[in-house]
Amino acid sequence: MSNLELYNKVKEVPQNALKSFDNGTFKGTDINTMWRIKKLTEVFGLCGVGWCPEIIREWSEKGVNDELLCFVEIKLYIKQNDEWSKGISATGGSKIVQYFKSKDYNKNNDEGYKMAATDALGVACKFLGFGADVYWANDKTKYTAEKEQAPIEYATKEQIKQLKLLVPDTNAVCVYCKVEKLEQITKARLAEIIANKQKQANNA
Predict the structure, then answer these.
(1) Does the pTM exceed 0.70?
(2) CA-CA distance, 170 to 159, in Å (whole number)?
(3) CATH 3.30.390.80 residue spans of the chain
């Protein structure tokens, strides 16, 4: 494999694997974790056979407004020509206790460490070029430029109304999507969540 062969193969991200976020202090574009997992599997093989993330340590630290931050350090290993690479070190972070300024209250997040591990995997994948077009505006292809011209559609009032009928505590959805309010979730993402909740309700 040439030096840039993998980079060029994984730098583009499909539109349906992207979502915008605004947590009040930072705006950006998030890449769906399952897209990364799919590409890792496509290029290297099954998890544990062709690639493998190893958790090195987990820890928490106090933040402002009585928030509790959590961090996960991992090493990502990939296999090339039947030989394992050295570990690609990365650290990800999230919150176990999150403060919501709009309502002036704190809420527990039982998926904090999982989200931190997911974040760490994304950082490790970034070193390999995964999603590079999202991170580096100067290394775009024509496909990427056309993709960014399309406006991002956010959740509609009808979707939010439908979600509230399915989910008693919509704040949990906001925490899961790393946003402060439902209106900051993309239309496509909220449609997926509603479909999953409807499926759960039908199977209950």
Answers:
(1) no
(2) 12
(3) 15-150
